[in-house]
Design a protein that fits this description.
Oligomer: single chain
Strand order of the largest sheet: 2-1-3-4-5
Radius of gyration: 21 Å
Distance between the termini: 56 Å
CATH class of the largest domain: Alpha Beta
CATH topology of the largest domain: Rossmann fold
Number of strands: 15
Order of helices and strands: EHEHEHEHEHEEEEEHEEEEEH
Strand content: 25-35%
Largest sheet: 5 strands, parallel
Number of domains: 2
Helix content: 25-40%
CATH superfamily of the largest domain: Response regulator
CATH architecture of the largest domain: 3-Layer(aba) Sandwich
Shape: elongated
């Protein structure tokens, strides 16, 4: 098993449940507790300041339920639901929770869920570390049990899809699919050639064909530049514009 540390937050409106899960986290070497919160609203405020890998999240809470909250989380943050009500199990898995713990649960059950999370994060990290760059001209990515060499000059854009990335290349109608986070990929790509313009898209600046209002057109695909990334993208446009 990987020796990675998984940062986590516990969210539950019951103080006894919070303390119990905290004691379980402290017994588990690969978990690192960052915060415990008595509501989803409190957790949301904390995560804006300090994102974490994993949430142990109660479902039935006032103001904002765990299911509703889970839909607001970044793609990189995963969830293990904790609840006293088994009717939420199906809904929990619909939002792609890593596991579902039915209260009252003991440490053995908790550890099984934590190990499942550890396995998932280990697989993602292993796949990310298998990227090798050659002066940032190439990336090697794992796809369908193969290591594929991707020439960066051929990349049109990267599209994030839950836990996977689609790599769209010139002259290829179908994308390459690989298990990886967009956040990790962004850190590995040269800033001079690639820019994140949306929560789900990193584009090749050299392959931008048109800009229409808040949309980039690459290979007939329209990609919206979201507010979060607009200032940086406009800086790039102005720097390379002949209309200054």
């Amino acid at each position: 098993m990987s020796s990675i540390k998984i940062t986590c937050v516990i969210v539950d409106d019951e103080p006894m449940a919070l303390n119990l899960v905290e004691s379980y986290v402290e017994k588990t070497p690969f978990l690192e507790l960052k915060q415990k919160c008595s509501s989803a609203i409190e957790a949301l405020a904390f995560l804006k300041k300090e994102p974490v890998d994993l949430l142990f999240l109660d479902i039935q809470m006032p103001d904002l339920t765990g299911i509703e909250f889970s839909k607001m989380l970044p793609k990189e943050t995963r969830v293990v639901f904790t609840t006293a009500f088994d009717q939420y199990a199906l809904e929990g898995f619909k939002v792609e929770a890593l596991d579902y713990l039915l209260k009252p649960f003991d440490y053995a059950e908790f550890l099984a869920a934590a190990n499942k999370a550890n396995t998932w994060f280990s697989l993602v990290k292993t796949n990310q570390q298998e990227i090798v760059s050659e002066e940032k001209e190439f990336l090697f990515v794992k796809s369908e049990y193969k290591q594929l060499r991707i020439k960066l000059a051929d990349v049109l854009y990267f599209e994030g899809l839950k836990d996977y990335i689609k790599i769209w290349l010139k002259d290829q109608p179908k994308p390459i699919l690989t298990l990886m986070s967009l956040k990790f990929l962004q850190e590995e790509l040269p800033d001079s050639h690639f820019m994140r313009v949306h929560r789900s898209f990193i584009v090749s600046l050299k392959n931008v064909e048109e800009i229409e209002r808040s949309q980039i057109i690459i290979n007939n695909q329209r990609i919206t530049v979201s507010e979060q990334y607009k200032a940086k993208f406009l800086e790039f446009v102005n720097k390379n514009s002949l209309l200054n």
